[in-house]
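Changelog note: in this version the structure field was regenerated for every chain. One regenerated record is shown below for reference.
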Amino acid sequence: MVYYVDFTYGTNNWNVGLPLAQDNESRWEEMGEFIYDPERAASTADIMFASDVFAELLSIRMSSPLFRLTSANDIIDRIGFHNIGSNQQKGLIAMSIDDGAAQTDDTVRADIDMMNDAIMVLINTGYDEKSITVNTATGFMLHAIHANSVDSSVRGATFAEGDDGNGTFTVPALTIVVFVKPQSGAQGYGLSAFATSGAPDVVPYGDTTAYLRGDMNGWSLDNAFTYQGDGVYFVAVPLIGGTTYGFKFASEDWDTVNFGAVDGDDGTVTDGVEKVLGRTNTNLAFTPSIDATYLFTINASDNEAPVLTVENEEPYVGTPVYLRGAINDWGTAEEFQYQGSRIYTFARDIEPGTYEFKVASKDWSTVNFGALSSDDSDRNVVVGQSVGLAATNDNLILTIENADRYVFVFNVSNEDAPTIGVYKEDFWGGTDVFVPGGMNGWKAVDRFSYLGAGEYVAEVELSAGAVEFKVASEDWSTVNLGNPNDSATNAVSVGTPKILGSSNNNLIIDVTEAGLYEFKVSGPDGAMPTLTVSMK
């Protein structure tokens, strides 16, 4: 293949020739009509303009040493990205480079660029103008070269500083633009690389609990939304196919939070389609196609115009998912069962050995998950742990040392980052585990019995009142489960499942009626099992 540069700017050698015949010959005529259309040829003026724009970008790069960082520490410490997370705008990159003074008294940071305290680079690949507000972005202005650019679109980029101490960058369509925060004299504050990724999460409605209130629950407070962060709330509710449910997104007082259809909209919600809500008296309406549990998700990043999505909670509804590997001749004899909450499980007896496998549908297309990469660290699945999955051709590898019954847990709670975990179904094995607590002097007397299928139960006599307890082995070492370190409350409510974790934090249950209670611990993950307490 020959490459050449035409310094007369008569041609740019682009959009010439046809793709290789091997895969494209059947469409050559169609491609030729597009490629050889005279309107698609670059003129000398077009080529000279592109050359001038490219020269501007080279000049900007040379204008600051921040574009040429030489150490990994500097790159990690100074470079931040600000259009991130589930709420990010498609087609927009917002990257900052910080050269401001360190914001802690005991840290000294080198002043790499004596002219600027920070730089912001924005790339808008979309066909519409885009704006992004960045926490603590202040004092920015368009780079001098871009302020006088040959490209009028670039000259139209703007920065506006808000009264809240944050700043908004606006970028025209199909444009790369650079802003700078000039340094005046001594090194000042720039823009932290963690201004977005490390910023505290601002809960849209504060401490107010929001509910799904509608025909599915008698317009009651039975279905509270859970806040998952980044402005997103969710709740899962079983619905009957073919039934139309009127509903709203609202707080208990019908005032702090009260959203329905926007004015002029009939309120109809379509499965899987986003719908912007408004503060109106018009109810929303959803008709599920089949009996199933449906996930109601509210993205309240804009808390006065939240976005609702309703979809079947099961990710692959109608598509059976199988464990396929050397353990079963790569067939479809062993199907995962959907457990709710976007989790599938499958259990079987396995003999010692090393087995390659994948998680896939019958057609190897709708679902086909393997290892994240060909590296052994990504391919090897360790019993008792989970690993990430990806749509790759790399098989996973499971090594079984002891014959036993094992549970495979396929978790799709994050569709962009599914996982697979393998656990012993009898996760406590031969270890005796008890419910020590204030009710029994913290002694190992109330022992769990194994029911099978990854479930253990213990019966404990409780008096009325609040009592602290844990789930632990007699040595307080082999098993020691309490309130997870990341859980805000250590309370256990009768009849409500509670995820446990290995920690020193006790659990507490407030007993309203004295009597005999059943403590049930369910797997499959023995390190994070679920506890449910119910009265006998």
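Spot check on this record: The longest strand covers residues 116-124. The first helix runs from residue 21 to 24.
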